[in-house]
Amino acid sequence: MWTSDTDLEVPEVRILVVSDPGTGKSSLIHAAAYPESCDGAIPPKVPSRMPPTRFPEDMFPDRVPVIAFDVGAVDEEDNRQLGPFRRLNTSVVLVYCKSTFDRLRTFWLPLLKRINKGDSKFDDYKNVQFLLVILAGSRSELDKDSKYDDYKTEKWISMLMREFPQVEMCIEFSLGDRSQVMSIHDVFYAAQSAILHPRGPLLDPETQMLSRECVWALKRIFIMCDKDRDGALNDAELNDLQVKCFDEPIVTYFVNGTVAYNCSEGVNENGLTLRGFLMLNELCIAKGLTEVTWTVLRKFDYNNFLELSDDHIFLPIRRTPDQTVELTSEALEYLRGVYSSNDRDYVCSLIFSHLRFECYVDTSCLSEHAVESNEFGGLSLDGFLAQWAFITLLDPVFSVGSLIQLGYPDHPSSAVRVTRGRCVDRKKQQSDRNVFQCFVFGPKEAGKSSLLQSFVGRPFSETCTPTFWEYITVNTVDHPDGTRKTLILREIPNNMLLLREVAFSDCDIAVFVHDR
Predict the structure, then answer these.
(1) Domain 212-307, CATH
(2) What is the C-alpha separation between 419 and 422, in angstroms, rounded?
(3) Of the candidates 147, 71, 51, 143, which has an alpha carbon nearest to the alpha carbon of residue 112?
(4) Are 350 and 341 in contact (CB under 8 A)?
(5) Same-fold call for 212-307 versus 309-516
(6) Average confidence (pLDDT) over 154-172
(7) pTM greater than 0.90 (yes/no)
(8) Quick one: pLDDT band at residue 46, thresholds 50, 70, 90?
(9) CATH of 309-516 given 3.40.50.1820, 1.10.3730.10, 2.60.120.1440, 1.10.238.10
C-alpha cells in the first residue's frame, strides 16, 4: 500500500486538488505557486481551473518535484476522472469550507474510500497506490454564517479522521492574507509528506498508537544506540543518534523535559528510557512531524514497509536434511544480556508475541507452558533461551531476523552455525550439537503429557486430556562433561502416526512411555 522508496528516490509527487465549486481550490494552487500574489491589495486574476502546476524543487526540504493538478467538477454518476491519477506517488488535497463541510462525509471521503477499495467502477485501477488525503479548510467570509463553529469543526474533523483512515491530517488556510502564506505552503508540504513520510505504517489504524512493526523497529534502534546496556540513552548516546540522523547536536535537557512531562516513566536517572523514546516518536507523529521518525528509521535501513533491507537479514544457509542450525555462543551471550536488561519483562513479552505470531513456520505446538518459568511465574532465563533454540531449529532465517530486530550488533552469519550431519555423528559416536529432539510415543493415558509437563516443572494433573495435535516442551539439561544441552520433547499423538504426518528424520532420541 505504501510505495515510496527508502532513499526517497521519487521522481515527482502528484497532488490532486479537489473540492466543491466555490471553495477556492484553484486560488489555493495559484497562491502556492505565486506567493507574491498574496502581497497586493487587489486579488489576482485566477483561472477557473488551473493548468497542471509544477512547484520549484527547492520549495520543500526534501527537494522532490511536486505537480499540482486542479481536478474539475466531479459528478456522482461520472467520477472516473480520479481513477487515472491512482498512480504511484499521488496524494489528494480535499478543499472545503464550513458551508461545504457536510459534503466531506456524504460524498468526497466515501468516494475516495471506494476508489481505494477498488470499487467496481474503478476495476482498472486496483492494486495501485492507496490515495492519501489532506483536508484543507478554507477560512472565508462565507463561513461566518455557518452552523459549525471552530469547536464543532475540530470535533467533526477528528471523527472523520477516525472513520476514514486515508485522511492524513487537516490544515486550515486563508487566501488573500499575507500572514497566512505559510499555511498555504503547509497544505502542499503535508500532501508531499503523505507520500514521502506516510503516517499509515507508523500507526495502528484502530488505536492510532504506534504500530507493532514501528515499535519493533524503534526498539531495535534504541537497543543499538544504548551502548552501555543500562536501559536508557544518556546525553552522549542521544546526541550520537541525533548527529547520525540529522547531522546536528541535540538539546538533551529539552527532549528529556518534554518526554518527562508526557510520560513519567520516559526518563530515569540514566537518561531517556525505551518508553520515553517511543513516546518521543509518538509526539512527533501527533504534531505532523512524521519526517522526523522516518528519517531515523531510514538511517537504520528500514523501508516504507518497516522492514530491513535484504542485506541485513538475508542469510543463505546451506545444509543437508540431516543437519540442523543452532545459535552460536555469541548469539546466546547477547540474548542473556537482553534477558538481564532493566526492561526484561517488557522485552520477553514483546519478543515472543512477535515469535509466535510472525514466524513463517507453525509454532502453534509451542504453548505458553512449553518452557520453564521462574519463581514469579514469568519466563526464566533457561526458558527464554530454550524458546530461541526451538525457533532457530524450525526457521533459522527468521530467528536471525528477530535477533537483528533486537539490535544484534554483529554480522548475521555470526549468530548461527550449521551442525555436522547425524550420520557422521553416529559413525563417530559423538556430536558437537547442543540441541536435540526427543520423540515421545505411547498408548493413550500412559502419561506422555505428564512427562512433558514435569520436564518444565509443571505440577501433575489428575485430569487426563487427550492429545490430538503435537505437544512440545523445551528445557536445558546438564551434560556429564559440564556443558548444557537443549532438549526438545515432542509428544507424537497416535492419530498422527496413522496418518504418517511425522518427520522421523528429525528424531534424535525416541522414548516409549507405558503404564503398568
Answers:
(1) 1.10.238.10
(2) 9
(3) 71
(4) no
(5) yes
(6) 83
(7) no
(8) confident
(9) 1.10.238.10
Residue 94, C-beta contacts closer than 8 angstroms, at least 6 positions apart: 18, 19, 104, 108, 109, 112, 133, 134, 135, 136
Report domain extents, the chain: 13-197, 212-307, 309-516
Query: Rounded to an integer, what distance in angstroms lies between the CA atom of residue 505 and that of residue 499?
Result: 16
What is 50-82 written as a DSSP string?
PPPEEEPGGGSTT---EEEEE----BTTB-GGG
Instruction: List, in sequence order, the alpha helices (H) in 395-429.
Output: 396-405, 422-428
pLDDT bracket for residue 54 (50, 70, 90): very high
Distance of CA 495 to the CA centre of its chain: 40
CB 408 within 8 A of CB 511: no
CA distance 300 to 292: 13
Specify whether the CB–CB gap between 185 and 136 falls below 8 A: no
Q: How confident is the model at residue 487 (pLDDT cuts 50, 70, 90)?
A: very high
DSSP strand pairing (90-96 vs 66-70): unpaired
CATH architecture of 13-197: 3-Layer(aba) Sandwich (3.40)
Beta-carbon count within 10 A of 468 CB = 10
Rounded CA-CA distance 197/2 in Å is: 10
Phi, psi of 487 (to 5 degrees): -115, 130
d(CA 25, CA 38): 15
Vertex 347: Cα angle to 342 and 351 (nearest 5): 160
Per-residue pLDDT reduced to its tens digit, 260-279? 888 888 999 999 999 999 99
Contact of 476 with 385, CB cutoff 8 Å: yes
Which pLDDT value is given to residue 142? 44
C-alpha distances (whole Å) from 378 to each of 292, 345, 347, 418 are 36, 8, 12, 31
- Closest by CA to 31, choosing from 191, 187, 190, 194, is 187
| CA atoms of 444 and 86, how far apart (whole Å) | 61
User: What letter would DSSP give residue 315?
Assistant: -
